[in-house]
Amino acid sequence: MKYALFLGCTAPTKARNYELSTRRVAEAIGIELIDLPEFECCGFPVKSVHYESFILIAARNLIAAEDAGLNICVLCSACAGTLVEVSRYLASNDKARQKVLSKLGKEDGKYGFAQNIKVKHLIRILHEDLGSEKISSKIKRKLSGITVAPHYGCHYLKPSDIYDNYDDSENPHSLDELIEITAAKSIDYLEKEHCCGAGVLAINEDIALSIAQKKLDSVKVSGADAIVLMCPFCGAMYDENQKRIGTKFQTSYNLPVLYYPQLLGLALGINRKLLGFNLNKVKADSLLERIETKSMQNEQCKFSS
Amino acid sequence: MQDIIDKVSELSEQNLYSCYQCGKCSGGCPSVSEMDLLPNQVIRLLQLGMPDDASNANTMWICASCFTCTVRCPKGVDIAKVMEALRQISLRKNVDYVEVREISAKEISILPQIALVSNFRKQTA
C-alpha cells in the first residue's frame, strides 16, 4: 500500500508530533509514504480571495501526484477537503480543467484528477483501506483502562457529498472504531461532532476560544483521560491554546491531546520518544506512565503463568 | 441591490430562493450564540433584497466554515458557500485594514498559519 504524503503547512510546523507519529505508524503497519518535492500549500487559505488561484494551487499538487502515479494521503482535514473538492471539480468540469492545465503548461487529456487518483485523509485510509483486522493483528500492547474522547472536527467528513458519503457526518463512528482497536475506550460526550473554533481564531479570538472552551468543558465532565484528534488545526486549539483557555475562563484542564497515530503508535509498541510526545504542549506523561506500568504488569503476568 | 444578490448567487452557485426558513442551519451552528443574525436570517434578508443588512452583521465572519449547515439543509442550500460569497464581496471594500508589519512576534508564534492568512484575507485586502 503506497501513498504520496501530503503534509500541508500546519502539520510540519505546528504539529510535528502528528507527522512523526504518522511516519512511525505507517512504517509499522505497512503503508509506504512517499514525499513528493512538488507538494506545497493546498490552496485553502486563498479560497475566499481568489477562487481560480485556489483551484490552480490545488491542481498543481494533484498533478504532481498523478505524475507519480500515487494516491494521496492527507494529514490535515482542511487540506483533505480542498484536494478532494478540486479533484472532483476538475474531473467533471472540462472547461475548468482545460483552463487550469493550459495555465500550468500541461497538455489536456493526460490528467483525469479524481478519475485517476484518490485523495484520502489518513484516518479514512486506516479505517477504510487497511481495516480493523489488519491493524488489530499488529497490536502489541492493549491500552485497556484508558478512556479517550474522539474529536472528528469538520472537514474530515463535511461536506459529505464530496466524500462519497463515507461515514456519517451527523453520527460519525470511524475514529471511535479505530480507537477501540487499541482497546482504549472511546466515549460519547456532549458536542462530540462540534467545530473546534479555529476558523474564527484570527478574526475574533474571544469567540474562537469560547467555542473551544465549551468542548473542553464537556470532555472534562465526561471523565476522559485524553482527547484524540486528527487535524493539526484542531490541535492548535485544544493543545496549544488549552492553557490560555484555562486562564481566560479561570479553570484548569490539564487534558492531554493526542493525534490518533500517537495513540495507535503506543498500542503498536512503538517507543513514546519516537512518537513525538515531547512536542505535546499539554504533557501526557502521567497517562503514558499508566499505560507503561499496566503493560509491564501484563508482561509479568504472562511470565509467571 | 439586485446586483449584489445576483453576485452572491453567482459566486456561491446557490439558489437563495430555495430556502424556506426552516432554521435547521441556525439550530446546528456551533458559533450561533456569537452572531448578530442567525444564518437563516441572513438568507432571508438576501431573499428580501436587503444585502446591506446581511453584510453589516458579523455572521459571515463568525462562520467557521464547519459545514454543519450545508450537510443539514433539507433544500440542499450550501449555506457555508453563501457566507464565503458574502465575505468575498465584503473584503473587496477594504474595511478594517490590518497592517501586517504591526502584528507582534508573539501573536505570530501563537497563531497557526491558516489563521493568519484568514485574517489577512479579511482585513488586509
Class by SSE composition of chain A: alpha/beta
Oligomer: heterodimer
Q: Please identify the top-level CATH class of the largest domain in chain B.
A: Mainly Alpha
Pattern of helices and strands of chain B: HHHHHHHHH
N to C succession of SSEs of chain A: EHHEHEHHEHEHEHEHHEHH
Largest inter-chain contact set: A-B, 40 and 35 residues
How much helical structure, as a percent, in the residues of chain A? 40-55%
Largest sheet report of chain A: 4 strands, parallel
Largest sheet data of chain B: none
Which stretches of chain A of 5+ consecutive residues score pLDDT under 50? none
What is the CATH C-level name of the largest domain in chain A?
Answer: Alpha Beta
The CATH architecture assignment of the largest domain in chain A turns out to be 3-Layer(aba) Sandwich
Q: Helicity level of chain B, as a percent range?
A: 55-70%
Instruction: State the domain count of chain A.
Output: 2
Q: Extract low-pLDDT stretches of chain B.
A: none
CATH second-level architecture of the largest domain in chain B: Orthogonal Bundle
Can you walk through the features of this model?
The complex is a heterodimer of chains A (about 300) and B (about 120). Chain A is an alpha/beta fold and about 300 residues long. Chain A has two domains: about 1-120, Glutathione S-transferase Yfyf (Class Pi), Chain A, domain 2; about 135-305, Rossmann fold (3-Layer(aba) Sandwich). Chain A is about 50% helix and about 10% strand. A four-stranded parallel β-sheet of chain A has the order 2-1-3-4, with helices on both faces. Chain A is globular. Chain B has two domains: about 1-95, Alpha-helical ferredoxin (Fumarate Reductase Iron-sulfur Protein, Chain B, domain 2); about 95-125, no CATH class. The interface of A and B includes residues 10, 14, 45 and 160 of A.
